[in-house]
Amino acid sequence: MSMPITRRRVLESATAIVALPALESLGFRKFASAAATAAPPKRLIFLGFGWGVTEESWYPDIKTPGADYTLSPGLAPLARHKSDFSVVQNMWHKYSVEGHEGSTMWLTGANRFAQPGQTFHNSISADQVAAAQFGLQTRFASLELDANPSTTKDVVALSGHGPGLSLAWDARGKPVAGLKGPVEAFHRLFSQDKTPIEQQKAMLAEQRSVLDTVLESGRDLKRRLGQRDTAKLEEYFDGIRDIESRLSKDEQWIGVAKPSTKLREPEASLEGREEIKLMYDLLVAALQTDSTRVVTYRQPVGTLLTSLGIKVFPHDMSHYHTTRAEKLDCSQKRDLAQSELLAGLLDRLKATKEADGSLLFDNVTLAYGSNIRTGHELSNCPMILAGGGSGLKLGHNIVMPKNTPLCNAWLTILKRSGVDVEKHGDSTGIAEELLA
Q: Which structural domain, as residue segments, surrounds residue 69?
């Protein structure tokens, strides 16, 4: 019987040592005899930062919506991309009550007090909703990037993100661990596993055996528990099932070499501005090699300030409105640095070609922002949308009706990217104003 030739089948051959690039003749796992090169997949990027922005100089004038707006000073480094991104204003999370949490609820829109008797509750983040569907075809269902903690004792305190291990939260509202810094990200994406295949299979089988034993013991225990303890045990079982899913994913990719890259292994001490720049490079490489189609990055702020020669503490900077002077200057320099870095990322997305000749930028939807406006202000979350992957309106200052749920934006992006979802967080429907 003639077997169809796919990129995956080539990679699984005994002679495959280095993963193939996305060759046009394979058309993202389709043979050249197909009528046309397969359309590149949709990708999603979520970039979150803490401590907000400088309100007076980051936002364009809310009184001049549309395409003819004047770019604000804080966004000036993005001028060359003005027609390819939109600033979105007046969106928020109605349940947000914490002025020091720039990302904890950013992609979920959850009410932290929704569970009686609990002081903290979260729900699934938008990226993980997409990963459940997009991740079926890639080595990594999603890629969670976080700041480098090598010389920073408390990344969260310095970056203003609040609870969590990354921007991502799973279906149970539990934090998803992120790769901490460029070194971890580089090795996760590109370091080859030299362990013999049979040994890899044996290790996975052993892990499955342990999980089976744990589940069997748990079922015996469940019969002797009360209602509240049973609920806790079910949550534990959910965690076990998550581990099983990861093991299944690992089994699918045994023997398939990770892609090669021209990027060099990063220095472990890299922090701040250069760290963010390199994480952006790794992010593009992950999408270009189709290692994943969903990426989140919880960016550092404290180390960014240090790399800029700024000595003002990040929290104090965010309260520049109390005593402006040095704090205001620091806040505006931070805005410019972040905008310059984002402009560089858009440059790279536009310079990266797909198998069908389109640009990676054409097939990506990028969301950039924070749950905090400035200080402890939580309405009108700073938000930029870019990329051609979801048919969004670009090149505009989009002023939404006041206090529009931010989850309406996430729902719109998910649905327009092809994700089967009817609601997300506190969404009330599609945000038509965001669509081209």
A: 43-192+262-434
